[in-house]
Amino acid sequence: TKSNLEEYLQLWVEHRLVGSIRPQVRAFQNGLGVFVSAELRRKLRDCYTACDFQLMVSGTPEINVADWRASTVYTDGLAPESDIVLWFWTIVQAMDRAGQAALLHFVTGSSRAPADGFAN
């Protein structure tokens, strides 16, 4: 009825946005609890927004090639000034963002850069 339409819509939206994914949220919380204590989760909730938390967990889509390059560790006789290494970084620098993300995903398993930089 018209008298309870607003309440109905509020409850329907709440169910669609919150209630329908409650089992997945609980599973995520339980999995996170393996690594992060309940007390620390409470402190994080007080200090950070959901967007901040997503950034910490998932990283940033912005790839700073200079930071990536400066943080790379070379082995097997390669060095930052080796011709092949210089060629590699020239090519990476020339790639578009999607290409850089695909390369980063191939190398690390994630197409997103660490939120606090590659050195960390």
What does this protein look like?
With 120 residues, the protein is an all-alpha fold. It has 7 helices and no strands. It has helices spanning 5-17, 22-35, 38-47, 50-58, 65-71, 83-94, 97-108. It is elongated, with a radius of gyration of 22 Å. The termini are far apart. The model has no long low-confidence stretch (mean pLDDT 89).
What kind of assembly state do the chains in view correspond to?
single chain
How confident overall, as mean pLDDT?
A: 89
Helical coverage, percent range: 55-70%
Number of helices: 7
| Beta fraction | under 5%
| Structure classification | mainly alpha
Written as H for each helix and E for each strand, in order along the chain, the element string is: HHHHHHH
Overall form: elongated
Number of strands: 0
List segments where confidence is low: pLDDT < 50 over at least 5 consecutive residues: none
Terminal Cα separation, in Å? 57 Å
Biggest beta sheet attributes: none
Radius of gyration: 22 Å
